[in-house]
Write a structure and sequence with these properties.
With 269 residues, the protein is of the alpha/beta class. The chain folds into two domains: 155 residues, Rossmann fold (3-Layer(aba) Sandwich); 107 residues, Rossmann fold (3-Layer(aba) Sandwich). It is built from ten helices and nine strands. The protein has a four-stranded parallel sheet, sandwiched between helices. Strands 6-5-7 form a three-stranded parallel sheet, with helices on both faces.
Length: 269
C-alpha cells in the first residue's frame, strides 16, 4: 500500500520532523507499504509557527483547502489512502466527501484506538488553544465520556522548539503525562504531530504503566486496513448523509468559478 501523509506544517522549515517521520514509517510498517511524507506548500505560514497560525478559524479554513487538494492529487496519482497528519483533523470531512480512497486522521484514529486500550484517555498537547479544539472533536466523535483530561504543556511550546535536543520539552511532556494519569487517564495521546514524533524518536512509549499512543503509526496502519478493505471488499464511506460526493461536472464547474487549479504532489513541501 502507498499512503500519502499530509502534514499541516511547512516541512521546509522542519527538516528534522520530516526525517523522523520517514524513519518512523520505515520502522513500523512492513514490507510492501510506503508512506510518502508531504507538507503544506512552502512559505504558507511565513515566519509564524503552525500552532499559532491555526488557532485562527479563517486561516485553518484556508489550509483545509490544501488537505482537499492533497486528497484529490493522492487519488489521481494512484495512492491507496490519505493520512491527515494534523491533530486538529482539519479538512477530514471535506476530503472524505471528495475521493473514494480512504482518508484517515490522527486524532479520530487515536481516540478510536484508545478505546480498545483503556477505559479513558488523556490528551497532552503543546498549546492551550488546542485544548478546546480537542473537546469539540471528542464530542463530534461521540467520545466525550471516554476523555479523562486534555492538558497543554506548561509553559506551552511551538513546533520549532522540538527540532533541537528537546530535553526541556521531554521533561514538560512527561510532567503533563503524570498529571493526566493522576486525573484518570488510562491511555495518553500526544496531541500534536511534531510532539508525537518527538516522543517516538526518544522511545517514550509508556509512563507509569500507561501506554503513550503512537498516533502516526496508528493512522498509517488504519489507512492500510481501510485501503485493503476498499480494494478487496469495495468498502467506502457513507454517501447518504455523512459524506455526500459531488458529481465530477458539479465539482469542476464550481472549482472553475473559484479559479481553483488542480495541485499535484510537486506543489507540496
Amino acid at each position: 500500500m502507498k499512503i500519502w501523509h499530509q502534514s499541516m506544517t511547512d516541512l521546509t522549515q522542519l527538516p528534522g520532523y520530516r526525517r523522523n517521520m520517514t524513519d518512523h514509517a520505515a520502522k513500523v510498517l512492513g514490507a510492501g507499504h510506503e508512506v510518502v511524507i508531504k507538507g503544506m506548500p512552502a512559505g504558507v505560514y511565513g515566519r509564524v509557527a503552525p500552532v499559532k497560525a491555526l488557532q485562527y478559524p479563517y486561516l485553518e479554513f484556508l489550509n483545509a483547502r490544501f488537505i482537499c487538494e492533497a486528497a484529490l492529487a493522492a487519488e489521481r496519482e494512484g495512492f491507496d489512502a490519505l493520512s491527515i497528519g494534523c491533530y486538529l483533523d482539519t479538512g477530514l470531512k471535506l476530503a472524505r466527501s471528495l475521493v473514494d480512497i480512504p482518508v484517515v486522521s490522527i486524532t479520530e484514529t487515536s481516540m478510536l484506538l484508545s478505546c480498545s486500550l483503556g477505559r479513558r484517555f488523556g490528551i497532552v498537547t503543546i498549546d492551550p488553544f488546542m485544548v478546546d479544539h480537542f473537546i469539540g472533536l471528542a464530542g463530534e466523535y461521540g467520545l466525550s465520556e471516554r476523555v479523562s483530561s486534555i492538558l497543554s504543556l506548561d509553559p506551552p511550546i511551538q513546533e520549532f522548539d522540538l527540532e533541537g535536543d528537546g530535553h526541556r520539552a521531554e521533561e514538560l511532556f512527561l510532567q503533563s503525562c503524570h498529571r493526566a494519569i493522576a486525573e484518570g487517564a488510562d491511555v495518553i495521546i500526544p496531541g500534536e504531530g511534531v510532539l508525537n514524533e518527538f516522543a517516538f524518536s526518544r522511545g517514550i512509549t509508556s509512563c507509569g504503566g500507561v501506554p503513550i499512543l503512537d498516533g502516526n503509526a496508528a493512522a498509517w496502519q488504519y489507512a492500510i486496513l481501510l485501503a485493503g478493505l476498499h480494494r478487496k471488499n469495495g468498502l467506502t464511506v457513507s454517501r447518504k448523509l455523512s459524506y455526500p460526493k459531488p458529481s465530477r461536472e458539479t465539482l469542476d464547474s464550481i472549482r472553475a468559478f473559484h479559479r481553483i487549479r488542480p495541485m499535484g504532489s510537486g506543489d507540496f513541501s
